[in-house]
Structure formats: C-alpha cells, structure tokens
Amino acid sequence: MTDAKKTIIDCFDLPQYSGGYDELIRAFNQANLNSEKMIGYCKAIKNIAITKRMGYLAELLNKKGMKSFINFALKEVNEKYNLFDPFGIEEGEFANKWLLRLNISTEEILDIWNKQY
C-alpha cells in the first residue's frame, strides 16, 4: 500500500516510471503533501538527490505546508551537484543553494507547473 506522498517520492527516485519530469512536476505541485510524512519517507529512502530536487521544487513553487520539509532538505544538501532531471543533458544554470544543475530551466518548470492536465 502507498499514499500520494510516498508515490511522489518513489517517482522522483525512479523517474523512468513516472511518465516524465513534466508529469512529475505537475503531480508534485497538485499533490496535498505533508512535510512530516515527506521527511519520514525521505529519511527512509536515503536518496539525497531526490530530497534536493523536491526541496528546490517546493521552494520554487512556494508549496503550501512544506516549510519544514524545505528546511530539512537544505540540511541534507551535500557537496555534490546533481542534475535536476537525472535523464537530461549536463547543461543549464546552477542552483548553488541546492547544488543542482538545472537542466530544466526555472522558466520551463514554471511553464510546466502552470499547464493543466
């Protein structure tokens, strides 16, 4: 059994099964997420890269109720840069705060976020 929060984390962990990053970004934005559950699931899965990606998204999209998750994710940031889209090419600006290479630009993310299913 799973819930929306765990499914979102699983999709960030295994994005090849998520329908693509466009769908994942929309699902993340539309899901009713809970910081404490998200923190618990991230601790259990132990994947710093996905924690950074979701923290970045939560902050960028000003995701309601995710302040403590964002703070948790920032504490998890390590010294290694990760691609925002792990299957994308190695280009794009750097989000130094999150140690992410934005191979999907902020503008593209916001455009994806604004499109409805």
> Over the alpha carbons, how many angstroms does the gyration radius reach?
13 Å
Which word captures the global form? globular
Looking across the biggest beta sheet, what order are the strands in?
A: 1-3-2
Look at the structure and give the mean pLDDT.
Answer: 92
Q: Which regions are unreliable across 5 or more consecutive residues at pLDDT < 50?
A: none
In terms of quaternary structure, the protein is single chain
Number of helices: 6
Structure description:
The protein is mainly α and 117 residues long. It has a 3-stranded mixed β-sheet with strand order 1-3-2, with helices on one face. Strand 2 and strand 3 form a beta hairpin. It starts with a helix and ends with a helix.
